[in-house]
Design goal:
Length: about 425
């Protein structure tokens, strides 16, 4: 691909790895299942570990800038250095990292899961203090393990700037799980950098082109690629994005000894998913905004509720970045407001019924797939209010999802008023 042309996200997702790999003519790469590779037959081609390290350094030194090149590095994805062992590197994982790096405009290091990526990044930064909000309970689980090992101090997200010191870490999840609402990245970047601390943004709920946390000052970006980059509920993977070559080199070195490189099948599935990624994320985000507006109207418009047969007062809260009034949100999320939203119904017993009345939403945890998901969140997160429902919007027709939600609310209203179940899809 020409360096003189700026390509869009969808084009990069399909063409960024063209001509890259052992067979430059293949359209879809093979799944490399080997864990080991034979050394060359000619002894003159054998390279010691020191020689291999020197060759990798030579390759890195060819480009002194921090920018990600769009030019092919070589037909061989390992820069002419023979593959040896798949815990070190393997062809498909390198190919997917190359494609992603061009899509996001940063260096990308991939991992076996989002939590593996989070653990790797926190270990890499090795802070004495971590400032973090509620967010995803899995990240707090990672921190609790590290706290046991290193006595790292956990601070609230709204801690005073003076509580942070050089080398500390703010872990900012935005939009936040499970609400789907946003925090001001730029404000937290100023807070962190004013004390010599790092800002990591978990942007899983709003991957590009919805938002680019680097533009607001993030030092690192974290993604659970299991979600929207994967997009089909069939793989686990995590990503760390950085603008620093040195950080990338150290993260890869750490990953080798920690054994966290994605398997070939997962990397292949992720590469397959990237081809349609932009189409999915933009559609899902637009539909989620429409559903958030519908639900919020049920919350505040009694006449609209009566028109649709929904009990007024049934919906007591709706959260989504599109509903926020903060000035920073539109600037921070120019590509859309994310495919996850939450709502709260009047009682826990009514809320618990809601997923069963839906026909087009699978009652399941996780998010990011082509199928819409709904979760009575109390089933997987003990910290949330038991009246909370999290919805991950898929790729179905918007009007069908709007009708499905409306009919489910009608059934919930009947249950609420009568105290007896309305007919659910299981019945």
């Amino acid at each position: 691909m020409s360096e003189n042309i700026t390509y869009g996200l969808s084009t990069l997702a399909i063409h960024a790895d063209a001509g890259y790999g052992p067979d430059p003519l293949e359209v879809s790469p093979a799944i490399s299942v080997s864990t080991i590779w034979r050394y060359p037959e000619n002894p003159d081609e054998w390279k010691s570990a020191k020689e291999r390290a020197a060759l990798l350094k030579e390759h890195a030194d060819k480009n002194k800038t921090e920018e990600v090149s769009l030019a092919p590095d070589a037909v061989d994805p390992n820069f002419g250095i023979p593959f040896i062992y798949s815990r070190d590197t393997q062809p498909v994982a390198l190919r997917v990292e190359r494609t992603l790096s061009k899509m996001v405009g940063a260096h990308v290091v991939s991992y076996r899961s989002g939590l593996a990526a989070a653990a790797a990044l926190i270990t890499h930064l090795n802070p004495k203090r971590i400032s973090i909000g509620d967010g995803y309970h899995g990240t707090h689980g990672v921190i609790s393990v590290l706290k046991r090992l290193s006595n790292v101090q956990v601070l609230p997200l709204d801690c005073a700037e003076g509580d942070l010191h050089e080398g500390d870490l703010i872990w900012l999840e935005t939009p936040v799980n499970p609400l789907g609402t946003s925090f001001d990245i730029e404000a937290f970047a100023k807070k962190a950098h004013g004390r010599g601390a790092w800002l990591v943004v978990d942007s899983t709920f709003a991957p590009p082109p919805l938002q680019d946390p680097f533009q607001q000052g993030a030092d690192y970006v974290h993604h659970s690629a299991t979600k929207y980059f994967g997009g089909h509920s069939d793989l686990l993977a995590g990503l760390i994005l950085t603008k620093s070559k040195e950080a990338k080199k150290r993260l890869i070195s750490d990953r080798l000894v920690m054994g966290n490189l994605p398997g070939s099948l997962e990397a292949w599935l992720l590469l397959r998913s990237l081809r349609t990624y932009a189409l999915r994320i933009e559609r899902q985000s637009r539909t989620a905004e429409a559903l958030a507006n519908l639900l919020d109207r049920f919350r505040r418009d009694e006449e609209f509720c009566k028109e649709k047969g929904v009990e007024p007062g049934l919906v007591i809260a709706v959260t989504h970045s599109s509903l926020q009034g903060d000035d920073f949100v539109k600037k921070q999320m120019p590509g859309g407001y994310g495919p996850v939203l939450s709502l709260s119904l009047v009682t826990a017993s009514v809320t618990k019924r809601f997923p069963g009345y839906l026909k087009l939403f699978f009652h399941s945890t996780s998010l990011g797939g082509t199928e819409s998901l709904v979760e009575w969140r109390a089933m997987s997160d003990p910290s949330v209010d038991d009246r909370l429902i999290r919805m991950s919007v898929g790729c179905e027709d918007t009007s069908d999802l709007e009708r499905d939600i409306t009919l489910a609310l009608v059934s919930c209203g009947r249950f609420w008023r009568s105290g007896t179940p309305a007919a659910s899809k299981e019945e």
